[in-house]
Every structure is written in structure tokens, then in C-alpha cells.
Amino acid sequence: MRSDIVKKGAERAPHRGLLRATGTILSEDDFNKPFIAVANSYTDVVPGHAHLYEVGQIICKYIRQAGGVPFVFNTIGVDDGIAMGHAGMKYSLPSRELIADTVETMVKAHCFDGMVCIPNCDKIVPGMLMAAMRLNIPSIFVSGGPMAAGFQTAGDDYKKSDLISIFQGVAELQRGRLTEEELLALERNACPTCGSCSGMFTANSMNCLCEALGMALPGNGMVLAVSKERELLYRRAAGLVMSLVDSDLKPRDIATIGAFDNAIALDVAMGGSTNTILHTLAVAREAGIPYDIARIDSISRRVPCLCKVAPSSDYHVQDVHRSGGIHTILGELKRIDESRNTDSAEKILDLECKTVTGKTIGENIDAWDIRSPSCAGEARVMVASGCAVPVSDAEGRLSPTAIAPSGRVVPRPMLFYSGDDRAVVAWRIAAAWNSGNLDILKTVFGDDTAGVFNGDDSGTPGIRDEVLKLLNARENTVRAEIAECCSAPGVLFWEYPKGSDKRRLLTISVTESDDALARKVCVCTEPGLVAESKPSGLMPHDSVFRFDADDCVRSLENAYSVDGGLAVLYGSLAEEGCVVKTAGISEAFRRNCGEGFVFEGACIIFESQEDACEGILAGKVSPGNVVVIRNEGPKGGPGMQEMLSPTSYVVGMGLGDDVALITDGRFSGGTSGACIGHVSPEAAEGGPIGLLKDGDHLRIDFPNRRIDILVNEEELAERRKTFKPMERKLTGWLARYRRLVENASKGGILWQGDE
């Protein structure tokens, strides 16, 4: 074992003494077990990471059960939303490099045998992936999961919302279309739970790509952070890292060039964040794989866009999970390959790539694609249970949110019988009942489940059907809440008589389970015993109504477009390329472009993101303009700020269908519209974007993937003679970063002296 370097032999007695002092070594036999690094990223300031301390503890528990010795350390994490719109955003992309370096440092210094990475948000996922490729020890990724979508009230109904809704609300307030009270209500409700923000923004895009890359389990990218279903991912990841150590299956064995192609194919099929291109280039380099944006562009030209998620549509990540999740999207790509009957070189997916499950990606698709005839029953249960959220109880009407009537987020489900499979069974039963999904309830609470009824231990055959008969016989609404029942996790059923207070009906305590399926339960209807149950305050519920899964995740026949949701453009403005999320461009903008989908407009130049925000809100941008935000690239910013604030303000000012935005910086995964980022070379390198003047015209030909300056070459040559890149005064880490960073076409990586 690698860890023998620090724990074996007489000369390592001092090392063992220090290891004992940590309290992690519980017996002499621990020195004979694999040492597993748990690279966590818990921090209170990032909602996607605020629950990761508990996640780390659960994973450590399961690693011990699987025969390993876990050691937890934490990386830093920048919340892009909180850092947005001020100088703090300059530290976001650079933090990716710090995260990779710190993980490398901890693992190399302490000689771990394997690693479980627990990321969730934007730069933490790629930073840890870069480290895993660099270290190349057996590793598995399991993230903290996405946030549930928020809501806005609209009369008696609810309208979904998210972080981007709040950003757009700022501009709507400026225009007088939203009151301060309405903005406050939006602020309070749009981000209702912990987890990575609920759209297909950068964090969720990267967590989903981990599945296609083979580094994470099916469900990693989309089972909600507040679903107890996620605890099964933690248990399985802990067990699998031990298997990976035993077989010595390492990240570079998994993340081959075919696996990276699979990940990019998924990305363009689901219209992921443009930032995934930046990060994929960086991760591939750490894996020792030559990968460039030309290859990404080639994939995007032959992969259709099958899915649009917020901000590109009203669908959110939990909707995609409800439709089958990542492996169902991959399943659609597999079916496209089968229908085209092309040779292996032209196929979209490489189905032979290895994964952390020990199976190929093709085998995983067969088991976890819910549209596949070979789909496992477990996949259907995970889909139903994983998109349920704990909701507030308004006298039997379950709201689509995890905000309690007090305005506070309800308790985290993870804290209820943490790391106990029986509690996951209880969650599944309650979620299935509250959502009316009896097929799933019958899978979890099977025909062969042993039963005890009101203390009669003689066994009650068909106990599930008896319970359903009791519940269905009630004329009033019945809701299920997870609760402690008879000193075990279970389900408390409430009845809501019309005109009177709700009352307890019956309880089911889960006394034995096997892989989150009920094996033995105790059912109690005696009022005295039912009254002793302890409600958790958690009513799992999926509030969807008349949901069309085939519209959310589409097949080739009704794809949004024949090419992918991301595209690379080249031309006189971007000789080394730039990136646009075509899936985020509205139909209204396309119509305004005309039949050829070509946009031509006069530039309005801003020298920084801050200037752009001020100018947009001040009304300096008009329909037909091309908004150019420069000096925000990796070197120029430095740090390549995300442009979520200006793009949200453009939408909020009612200009989203009428203008294009271009930058040598980058856009948030939450950005929608004709937003073109990563322009390379950047202004700080003397790139053509730095030569533009107000009033110059740009031509963007989306179908032919061209972006050109409509200024004659002689004029540009004259401007180049007197051009001096802007250089901001810097000290500290950002000054070092600026000296070493490459441009966006190379992934914004740091120069390592190998070129």
C-alpha cells in the first residue's frame, strides 16, 4: 500500500505516534488497512457546501464499515454568486488552481492509498478533478447535490425561480417592473435549500460531466442535496473507493480521450455551461491528454441538443432527474448511434470506457437509463425519490418548497438518522405516497416485506396491501411525514379532516432494510402508540403536475437543434476561438437575426465588468448593440470574472432578445442569451478585441460559427501600432497568477514550464 511509507517499520514509529494522536487510529489493525483521503470542501459561506461537514462524516462512517481508515481535510471554496459583481470574482477561477494544488499537497505529503472527493460548486469540482488526474491514485467523486428550485407566488399558483431570477429582479426593480417588497420575496424564496444552484449552471454541469467521464456514480449530478436518497450515493462511493484501491483502478485509467469525448457529448446535448469547456481543457491536460477546443467544436457539430435547462428554459435540474437524469440523456445518444449505424470513429459515445462502478459506461447506461428495457428497478426508485424535497405542511396542501411557514429552511433530512439505510426507506415510502407514485412505493415496500401489526410478532402476510387499504379507505387527505416510530426511523401518516385539526392516523417503523428496500416493518394503528411517535418536520414531496418527461429530455426526432447547445466560433475577432451557449439563445433573438441567423451590430465598449453593469443600468445600451466587455480575460482581469450581473441586467432591462454580449472574460452557467465569452487572444495579450472602438460593427454568423470585425485591415493595423494593453496594479496571489496563466483557449491553466 502507498500508505506503508508512513506507517510501516521501526523508523516510522514517530509517524505512527502522530497518527495515533489524531484520534483517527482506533486499533492496531488500522495500520494494516488502506488510508483513504476524504477531500471535502465544507464551508458555511457557500450554500452548495454548507451541508458537506455532515456528508463527510457519513462517508467516513461508511469507509470504516468497508474496511478503510478515513482522513478528512478541506479545500477552500469561493461562492461565485456572492463574489459576483465586485472584485471578489477575480479570485474565483484562480481558486481552481489553489484547490488542485492543495489536494495534491495533502495527498502527496501523507501518502494516501485512495481518495473520495466531495465537491459541489463551480471551481471546486474541476479543481479536485485536476488534482485527481495529477495524483492518479484510486479516486471517486460524490458531490453534495443540487438545490431544489425556488418559487414565486402567482395568484394561487407557484412559478419556479432560482438565483438568476433574483439577479434579473434587480434590473426589473430599476425599470419599475418590480417593487422592493416583491424583490425581497423573491430573494427569500428563490434559493430554498442547501445545494448547488438549481439550474444547469456551471456547478451542476460539472457534477453531471463527472458521471459521463466515469468518475462518479449514476445520480451524482442530479439527486437533490436535501433528498435522503443521496445518502445511498455516499455509502456506495465509500464502498467503491475500497474496490478501486483493491483493483488499483486509477483516474487516468478511466478518464481516457474517449471518456472526455463522452463528457463533452453530454455537455453539448444538455446545453451545459460554457465554463465546462474551460474546465475540461484544464482537466484533460492534467490527465496527460492532448485536447483542444477544435475537438470540442467537432463534437458539438454532430451531437444534437436534446435538453434545455434553466436559464435556457423553465426546466430545472430536478426536472431532468425526474425525466431519468444523465444516464437517460446518454441513453438517447446511444440510441442515436444505433440508428445512424456509423463506424466506431463516427459514433458519439465510446461505450467501452471504464468507470468507478467497475463497469463500462455502456453497461451503466443499460442499467440506469429509465427508457432502456434493461433498466434496473433501483434506477426508477432513485429517479422518483431523488427529486422529492422536504416541504412545508399547509393543512394538507404541500407547497413546492422547503421553506417552513416561519420563513426558515426546514431541517436537513440528512440529520434524521444520519447514515441509516432504514431512514432512506422511510423517506422513499413517504415520498412515494405524497407524490401518488404507488409503483415506487410497492417496489420499496415489497410483497415479501415481513410485517408486525400492532405488536403481533407472528407475522402479517401482505402487510403492505393492508396498509394501503387502510389509507385509501380514508375520505380525507392523508399525508406522510418521516418520524421516529418505536425507536426506529419510520413514517407517520396524518389525516386532515375537513373543518378540524389534522390527526395522527398510523405509523410504519422500518426495523430491517437491505440496500434501502424494506425487509421488515412494524405497523401501528393504536392511538396511544401512534401518539408516541416523534415527527421530524420532513414531508418529502415532488410537487410536479402533468410533467412531460419526453419534452424535458428529448429524442433525436424532436431535438431542439441538430447540433449541440454549445458552439466554438472563430474569426478576425477570435483567431483562437470563443464560446457561445447556443441552447441559451431565445427564439425571439433568432427571429430578430433574420432567416440566416446572423447578427450584425454596432459595438458599445466597456473596459470592465463594473463599467458594463453601471452602463447597462443607466440605459447606455440600445437594441441592436453588441456589448463588448474587455480586459476581463485570465490575464487582463486577472481571473476571468463571470458576467452574470451584466447579462442578467440586460435581460431585466428588456434587451435580452435584441443585443449580443461579447467578452474575453467568461459568462456564468446561469447566463442566457447571445453571450459569447472566452474570446482568445484576450485584450491583455494584444488580441483584436482590444482594438475595437465604440461604433465599430461586428458580424456574428452563428450557423457558420464565425465572428468577425467589420473594420478594414489597414485601420486595425494602424490601431495596433499605438495599442497598449491595460494593466491593473496588483499585489499578492493575483499578481503571481497573472504572470503564469494561459488564455481561455488553453483552459486558463497555469504555465508549468513544460512548453
Largest sheet: number of strands, sense, barrel closure: 8 strands, mixed
| Uncertain regions spanning at least 5 consecutive residues | 398-411
Helical content stands at 25-40%
Find the count of extended strands (DSSP E, 2+ residues). Answer: 23
Mean pLDDT: 92
Span of the ends, CA to CA: 34 Å
Helices, by number, come to 28
Percent strand equals 15-25%
Structural class determined from secondary elements = alpha/beta
Descriptive account of the structure:
The protein has 755 residues and is an alpha/beta fold. 37% of the residues lie in helices and 17% in strands. An eight-stranded mixed beta sheet has the order 16-17-21-20-19-18-22-23. A seven-stranded mixed beta sheet has the order 7-15-11-12-13-14-10. Strands 2-1-3-4 form a four-stranded parallel beta sheet, with helices on both faces. Helix 25 links the parallel strand 18 and strand 19. Helix 9 packs across helix 12. The protein is globular, with a radius of gyration of 27 Å. It starts with a helix and ends in a 15-residue tail after the last helix.
Q: What key phrases describe this protein's structure?
A:
755 residues, alpha/beta, 8-stranded mixed sheet, 7-stranded mixed sheet, 23 strands, 37% helix, 17% strand, globular
Fold topology:
Blueprint: H1 4-7, H2 13-21, E1 35-40, H3 52-65, E2 69-74, H4 80-83, H5 92-110, E3 114-117, H6 124-135, E4 139-141, E5 150-154, E6 157-161, H7 163-175, H8 180-189, H9 202-213, H10 230-247, H11 251-254, H12 257-269, H13 275-286, H14 293-302, H15 317-322, H16 326-340, H17 361-368, H18 377-386, E7 389-391, E8 393-394, E9 397-398, H19 421-434, H20 438-444, E10 450-453, H21 463-472, E11 477-485, E12 488-496, E13 503-514, E14 517-524, H22 527-531, E15 534-541, H23 549-552, E16 567-569, E17 577-580, H24 587-593, E18 598-606, H25 609-617, E19 626-629, H26 644-652, E20 660-663, E21 675-680, E22 697-701, E23 706-709, H27 713-722, H28 732-740
Parallel strand pairs: 1-2, 1-3, 3-4, 10-14, 18-19, 19-20, 20-21
Antiparallel strand pairs: 5-6, 7-15, 8-9, 11-12, 11-15, 12-13, 13-14, 16-17, 17-21, 18-22, 22-23
Helix pairs in contact: 3-10, 5-6, 6-13, 7-8, 7-26, 9-12, 12-13, 16-17, 19-20, 25-26
